[in-house]
Each structure stands twice: as C-alpha cells, then as structure tokens.
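Lab notebook page, bench 4
Experiment: in silico fold of construct C2
Operator: M.H.
Input chain length: 230 residues
Purpose: comparison with the prior construct
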Amino acid sequence: MSIVRIENLKKSYYISDKGVPILWDLNLEIGEGEIVSVEGSSGVGKSTLLNILGAMDEFDSGLVEVCGVNLGTISNTEKEKFRANKISFIFQHHLLLPDFTALENVMIPLLINKMNVIKAKQEAISMLQRVGLGERLHSFPSQLSGGESARVGVARALVSKKQLVLADEPTGNLDRENSKNLMALILELQRDLRFSMVLVTHDMELAAMANKRNKMLSGKLQPIPVNISN
C-alpha cells in the first residue's frame, strides 16, 4: 500500500503576476514503513514539497495522494483534520512552546485529538522515557540542552503514532554527535512504530540512513542508489 503517491506535480510561486516554477512533473511513491530522503541544496524546492505533503501549501496541478487522501480535492477545514489525524512533523528548530514543560509539550498533539488528559499524560510520559528524558518531564525548554530539546520534538511528533512523519532538516542545528544520536533514535522508533517518513536534508550521512534516496534537481526527484554516496 502506498502512503504517498505523487504524479506529475507542478508548483510555481508568483512574483508580480509572473510564475516562477519550483516543482514540475515531479513523481514520488512511498510505501508503508519506508524512509525516503529528499536531498539537495537550499532553494531547490525540498521544503515546498514537504509543505505540499503536509497539506500546508497549494499546488498548481498533478495528483498528490497522502494516506489515501487526495489533497487536491479537500477543503481547508478538511486539511486541518487531515494534518491532525495523519501527519506528524519534526522541525529543525523543534518549535517547543517555551512556557510549557517537556511533558506538556508532548501532550499537546494528543489533547488536540481529544484524548483524555490522564491517558494523554501517560502516553507522553511513556514516549519521553523512550527517548531518554524520563528525568526531564517537568523541565522547560530553556532548561534543556539542544540535544534534549530535539528529543522532546521527536517525542511530540511520534507520540500520536501517525502514519506519516515529515522531517525537515531534523538535525540541522545539532553538532555531529547529537545529530547521529538523534537519527539513531528516530530509526529505532521507526522500526518499532512502523511509520513512513520523508526526510528532507542536505546532510549526506543522515540521508544514507534512508531506504530510498532522491535528489531534488531541476524541479524533479532523481533516485540515488542507496549503496552509492552522493
């Protein structure tokens, strides 16, 4: 079963009514439990593609089907429900709420989906323990190191056990050691929870951990053999 199916996707940005193509005739298919990288330099359209997959950006034409939902045919209200039910995001800067503890930050997506507060707390504690932060439940983001904040961000993204995780440079602001540790943690959780993941990165070492690799070039995705360094 395909979690993501994209056919002939086209997307342009408009400046003074003039279209500037960013993606065109792009195709992509992701199966259940696959980790797929999207690699390339800044400005080539990697984050644009991620935003389209997350139903946060419109596109000009083509088919974009995610978790069985045709994103080109649903309303903005339906897109909000789709994101809440199907998609999780891991961001480079984590975007933790500064006035909430680690535990409260991880509870947020569960509470948004109407989970009972007691159950949400239990699930959040369990996930924080799994990422090695069982002793940091009541710490605020300002009291956490960069690596710890990143793990809270991962816990928040994965606690809802969504089908698809969209990761945009998840280790981009970490040093090499913390970067390796975080990606190893994500891979361990992915093997257990079996979610699919789109990994946007310019880090070749990080990208090498994907099942399938793609380079964004001239608005399209070009497959990279996983056993050959880019």
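Observations: The radius of gyration is 18 Å. The domain at 2-224 is CATH 3.40.50.300 (Rossmann fold).
Next step: discuss at group meeting.
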